[in-house]
Specification:
Length: about 180
Amino acid sequence: MELFEIKDDQVSFSPQALLLKPFKDLWDRDKKKNKPLANTELAAVYFFMDYKSDFSTMLNDEEKLELIKSVIVGMPTDWEPDNLFKEACKFYQTMQETHSTLLLIDAQYAIASVRKFLRSLDMEERDERDKPVHDIKKVIDSLGSINKVTESLMDLEQQVKKQIHNKEDTARGGKEKALFEDSI
């Protein structure tokens, strides 16, 4: 079930989303006409948690949420995530999880660790005998392998996107859509 999508340059959500308690709770607490806070919070859930979101490659949740808060149109400047928002995010994440998506996240964290290591590498560092601590040949060989690592990550990202797309193309009950079901 596709709960959120980008439509007319805005995040929209399916009516079925409001049948799910975590999203309905966000919706019901906004008492204003047209539900401006509920709409921005549901958009924030999408941008924060969806694997198709442009923010999905940001691994630091605090930084990602701060950036999302700063760019969502209509988000109050004093807004902070509360338990209802966190529950909606947790629920949405759980609904999307597959072995592939979990492996993708793990791979992204591993690559972030490699990047952090490479940034901290000091080739001028010497031991107590004034010998280089790091073997330059090993470092160069490792750098040569980075292309393979990035290609593998890109392949995994494509597999996840394909899996998510195929999941979205499946109708209720696990059956494939009919040929003209989407009015194409």
